[in-house]
Amino acid sequence: MRVRALATTLLLAGCSAAPAPAATPTPTPVPTTAPAASPPPAELRLAFAGDVHFMDRTAALLKNPATAFGPIASALSDADLTVVNLETAITSRGTPEPKTYHFRTEPKAIDALKAAGIDAVTIANNHTLDYGRVGLLDTLDALHAAGYPYVGAGRNTDDAYAPWYTTVKGVKIALLGFSQVHELASTWAPGPDRPGIAMAFDTDRAIAAVTAARPRADLVIVFNHWGEEANSCPTGEQKTFAAHLSRAGADLIIGAHAHTLQGSGWLGRTFVAYGMGNFLWYGTSKSTETGILRLTVRARVVTATQFLPAVVSNTGQPALLTGPAATKLAQRYSGLRSCAALSPSPAS
């Protein structure tokens, strides 16, 4: 009996001695890095001025394109992007159109624009076709040959209404140009196979161009040629078109043509400067008051504005004003906001 009991004891002991399970290793913590925050949108300094052309006294300035704009060039070049209206054909050919005034110049005008720090021009105006479509095509060829950016005209409808896209400090900008001048508007309009000017009167096409540019750009700028000559208040036609452009997504709307300054301010969240007056000008005019509009922009919002008052001098060059004369013109310019029906600040 003792033998059987011992055997049973040994058997039970063997069953209870199963190996202990292996310890589960503790996982090594993996360091986590928070996703890098996107950098804030860059702050841009933009500059705009009015009508430029090289005829009569201003044609003589092209003897030295590097100094054609005079001392004001330093204020033009002191911006991330500067745009004006080039109101002339660049051609020696063509037949004058049935109109009173005809402006044309030579390719050295492009050298003068570059030397002054002007980065692009609109050619949507009532003088780019002064010498017909031959003159317009010469203008387009000259700008292409110089690699100089422009908007507002083209070899066909799509080309004329196309924006110029550029990237400045990481911000993609779309620039468009339209003319709202009635003279010869129907015959100067582009077609599928006909060169011409981008007309505001084809409102659907103009709005479609801005609407299409909106998702492709961080900032959309429209430069219009519009208004009634010598009228420092925008017309109802200007205001209606500005409202269309604002709803389509334009962030900035700049204008010229009236030969006098017109007011600036906000239309909702769109900044509008209805008229910048003459800038580099060939002769006498309805007003010699002019200036440079500087805008500071961040993330589609104009955060600061500065108007640099100037006057068209006897050489045709714009000259910055100082002292009481500058203060007087700056105050007058600010007061023009009232009849423009614009706000001094953007809508919240």
Helical content (DSSP H or I, runs of 4+) = 25-40%
By DSSP (H or I, 4+ residues per run), the number of helices equals 10
CATH superfamily: Metallo-dependent phosphatases
Poorly predicted ranges: 1-22
CATH-defined fold name: Purple Acid Phosphatase, chain A, domain 2
* Quaternary class: single chain
Gist of the model:
The protein is an alpha/beta fold. Helices cover 26% and strands 28% of the residues.
Topology:
Elements: H1 2-15, E1 44-52, H2 73-77, E2 81-86, E3 89-90, E4 104-105, H3 108-115, E5 120-122, H4 132-146, E6 150-151, E7 153-154, H5 157-161, E8 164-168, E9 171-179, H6 185-188, E10 196-197, H7 203-213, E11 219-225, H8 236-248, E12 252-256, E13 261-267, E14 270-276, E15 278-280, E16 289-298, E17 301-312, E18 318-320, H9 323-335, H10 337-340
Parallel strand pairs: 1-2, 1-15, 2-5, 3-4, 5-6, 9-11, 11-12, 12-14
Antiparallel strand pairs: 1-16, 7-10, 8-9, 13-14, 16-17, 17-18
Helix pairs in contact: 7-8
